[in-house]
């Protein structure tokens, strides 16, 4: 059709979440029409991101610095840690601007059926942070799914001996909903209505 | 949130046709999770495409060779040219495998209201191809829109002196389509284009 370069571009674009074969072709065409203005800048942004972005060793966030921008910010409440399932959830909370503490990204939820146990989660660094002291409260901001609830209960018990208050996000998270698709107001309400877990 | 590199990646992904801000974030996250396996290969494919792909000087197709793969294929009917609005239309016809001749990409349609005149289309190379001789038929495969119809009428008259047969794609009920979901214009065209059964 247009050589192997175009075929490969369409193939890889089609693997992006949210893009099927048809929209991948449309995206490729839009980019190929403006190689200098659109295709190269996106290629460079990707290369730059691939070279610089890493996982924060402290909290599990993705950032071009390690410790990440959130962990490095002295103005954030160092005694308050919000535990989320994934980086997308962290992004959603940051967009909403409703959490002024730090985060901890679990990288998943417990799923006995899916064979995902505590050893598969980013758990040891969280325990180390609590043992280091200075953490007043841990907010469990997990999705209202079966796995989210399982993980929340398990974490509540596991973290209780640390002495920190363990709370969880409350009203506002719809049943069966994932955190990263919620609107800002719902996220704010959920954080405000947190209860002892 | 995660540094300027991530912000820029999301911003540029969000400009792809078919990706809004939310799906751009999802795509960025999917890529950032596997920088070596997914982000870098896509960046390289884009760079490669930007470096090699150009517009075929003969027909207006996008290809890493010039003349393009279609124009260079000696097995294709050199006397039959299919005129399309954009490269996406050429791709669609090639996927269908229904045209064994060459193409000519106009790069748009006439739009008096939009201020797009004949001088804005890839027209001179088409006239040059007809003047060079050997073209038996020109098929106008333009969309069934006001602009498509305008362009088709104008081109029919403009190309008539060349001596080649000027035809246009048929209009009617799409394959697999039910009658009761079609718009009035399509139904009218289908009735007009009726043939002995």
From TrEMBL, chains A, B:
UniProt zinc finger (C4-type) residues: 56-71
Record-linked Pfam families: RecR_C (PF21175), RecR_HhH (PF21176), RecR_ZnF (PF02132), Toprim_4 (PF13662)
SUPFAM superfamilies (UniProt xref): Recombination protein RecR
Keyword annotations of the record: DNA damage, DNA recombination, DNA repair, Metal-binding, Zinc, Zinc-finger
GO molecular function terms listed in the Swiss-Prot or TrEMBL record: DNA binding; zinc ion binding
One GO term of the biological process aspect: DNA repair
Chain ranges of the Toprim domain: 79-174
Functional note: May play a role in DNA repair. It seems to be involved in an RecBC-independent recombinational process of DNA repair. It may act with RecF and RecO.
Protein family according to the UniProt entry: Belongs to the RecR family.
Protein name: Recombination protein RecR
